[in-house]
Amino acid sequence: MFFYLPLLFLLPFVLAHDGHDEDQIPLGYVRFPYQATYPGDNEAVTADSVFSGITTFAKLPWVQCLGRDRDTAFDIAFLGAPFDTATSYRPGARFGPSGIRAGSRRLNLYGGYNVPLEVNPFMSGLKLVDCGDIPVTPYDNKFAIKQIENGHKQLLQRTAASSLGNDSLTSQPLVPISLDGVNHPRIITLGGDHTIVLPLLRSIHSVYGPISVIHFDSHLDTWKPSVFGGAPSEQAAINHGTYFYWASQEGLIKNGSSIHGAIRTTLSGPADYVNDDESGFQRIEAREIDTIGTSGIIAKIRETVGDRPVYLSIDIDSIDPAFAPATGTPETGGWSTRELRTILRGLDGLHIVSADIVEVAPAYDTNAELTTMAAADVLYEVLSVMTKTPLGKVVKD
Ligand SMILES: [Mn+2]
Fold first, then answer.
1. Predicted confidence (pLDDT) per residue in 223-275, tens digit
2. What is the pLDDT of residue 168?
3. DSSP track, 65-96
4. What is the distance in A from the centroid of ligand 1 to the CA of 362?
5. Which residue, 151, 212, 257, 307, has fewest beta-carbon neighbours within 10 Å?
């Protein structure tokens, strides 16, 4: 009898509740900020809070851009490139795209308004989507690099969903800055190890020609294959420390107007910097933040790039491992997450045609998801800057 007592206590409550429909909690009761709200989504009744549901970047709509939804136009797409078979030290960046998406869940919990930039990138009127991941084989680097180029190209070569509109200062109509005069969408790629930037720049080149690059990284990544990896084979010569060397050799980078930031790697010798110069890059070293500060760094970048179209590549290892430990080749002495975010906001007004964040290897992260959260927040600044500046120019008579 003793064991049945708890059940007897419960019985009256169960009977009282039965049949009273007005006591039922409606499925759609969860309201902002606990329900991800995008315009038109207010009728959703499935679990869709920041901590549940299907995880896309910032809970944006998932569009199968490379598959059955290929006719759906967009303005800015997040796209995963889960490739990590050209790393030199700790592998694992193939899990970067899913990790960064998990780190981005809370991005618009409070609405997504960016206070310093005075913009809400999620409410800018541009169509933002998560296109999922490019199919990438883990068995054949040459094939995988081609898959990444083709996947990125397929999206980049489309026409953007929204028109460019008029210049906010002169009210003149804006003209696209692409080679073919078409207003192309922008893609924010979630890596993957840094090698993916070679196929991404090949894709960028097909639409914009040789491009200025802003590259945040603790490493140069312009190393000659004989110096980085030793180049035992043609395939091994293309890796996450040499892809910029190859991009430069192929003429994908605009020499002299490209720049690295946060550099602090050791070198094989001073010749590495000579080779880096020849690859077309200026350099800002991580320690310069102690002398010229974030504003000095921003000024240097803007001076180098000017008003040219620019591609932005962010290695998570530009941030100090104290803030972002989950990466393939961590280097101490880096910038804080706050400093990198400030510098990125300083790019406001530049024509950033596309961007990436790479080398996020979630297996080495803390339980608090420091690195994937930092990666997502860094991309939030990039997205904010992008939504503020259309990829157009005023044609002067
Ligand atoms: Mn790198």
1. 999 999 999 999 999 999 999 999 999 999 998 999 999 999 999 999 999 99
2. 86
3. TTTTTTT---SEEEEEE---TT-SS---GGGH
4. 16
5. 307
Full-model pTM? 0.90
Higher local confidence (pLDDT), 68 or 26:
68
C-alpha 31 to ligand 1 mean position (Å):
41
Confirm whether residue 219 is marked as ligand binding. Answer: yes
217 assigned binding-site residue: yes
* Fold that domain 54-391 belongs to in CATH: Arginase; Chain A (3.40.800)
Question: Is residue 221 annotated as involved in ligand binding?
Answer: yes
Residue 156: CB partners within 8 Å, gap ≥ 6?
184, 185, 187, 203, 204, 206, 207, 354
Strands 392-393 and 175-176 turn out to be antiparallel
Known binder of ligand: residue 315?
A: yes
CA of residue 222 to ligand 1 center, whole Å: 9
pLDDT reported for residue 375: 98
Residue 330 Cα to ligand 1 midpoint, Å, equals 10
Q: Which residues neighbour 366 within 8 Å (Cβ) at sequence distance 6 or greater?
A: 325, 326
**Per-residue model confidence as pLDDT tens digits over 81-136:** 999 999 999 999 999 999 999 999 999 777 899 999 999 999 999 999 999 999 99
